[in-house]
Amino acid sequence: MIGRPKLVLASGSPRRVTLINQAGIEPDALRPTDIDETPKRGELPRACANRLARAKAEAALELVNVDEELKGAYILSADTVVAVGRRILPKADLLDEAAQCLRLLSGRNHRVHTAVCLVTPAGAFRQRLVETKVRFKRLNDEDIEAYLASGEWRGKAGAYAAQGIAGSFIVKLVGSYSNVVGLPLYETTALLLGEGYPIRFGWLNAV
């Protein structure tokens, strides 16, 4: 788009694309990165989210720097970690893994941490970390089996998607809902605004 600087989203997540679009922002390009997202031994959830968001931003910056059309663009990355206490739950790919997550979350509080990292056109890195407290209802075997059969859990942190069927499991949520989906909109837009990105540029044609 002419009239504003370019923005690259370092993600291929449909959820993050939908959320950034909800804020009236259309990324100029998606540059998902292939990094090892395995938590380090003893790593705390907040530290893990911060480290991975930064690593994704750095990997995307390397891709952008060799693309003449995108050089000098803002780069936005994020990483979401679901944790019960200090225990980080996986982005479930296996059925048994997902079942274990759901049983652990059943009837308990957990926290969702999303770190957002912005690389400015000048090459500066800016980060924010957002935490939301979520409580699930007590899940019975039928709940778990039916949810696993839906397949909605695949690739999701903690094996659930709050914007989908699992939204009906949430008894209480304290903090940012969009954070639980995968991108805290208030903090993300504040970060962009603070670094000079004109987030309101696309609002005129948003409706």
Label the CATH architecture. Answer: Alpha-Beta Complex
Mean pLDDT: 94
Order of helices and strands: EHEHEEHEEHEHH
Q: If you consult CATH, what is the topology?
A: Maf protein
Q: What is the share of helical residues?
A: 25-40%
Structural class: alpha/beta
Q: Which percent range describes the beta-strand content? A: 15-25%
Q: Count of DSSP helices?
A: 6
Task: Kindly describe this structure.
Strand 1 (7-9), helix 1 (14-22) and strand 2 form a beta-alpha-beta unit. The relative contact order is 0.18. The chain has a single domain (7-205), classed as Maf protein, CATH 3.90.950. The longest helix has 21 residues, at 45-65. Strands 1, 2, 3, 4, 5, 6 and 7 form a 7-stranded mixed β-sheet that branches. The chain has helices at 14-22, 45-65, 95-105, 141-150, 177-181, 185-194, and strands at residues 7-9, 29-30, 74-84, 87-88, 109-119, 125-136, 170-174. The protein is globular. 32% of the residues lie in helices and 22% in strands. It is an alpha/beta fold and 207 residues long.
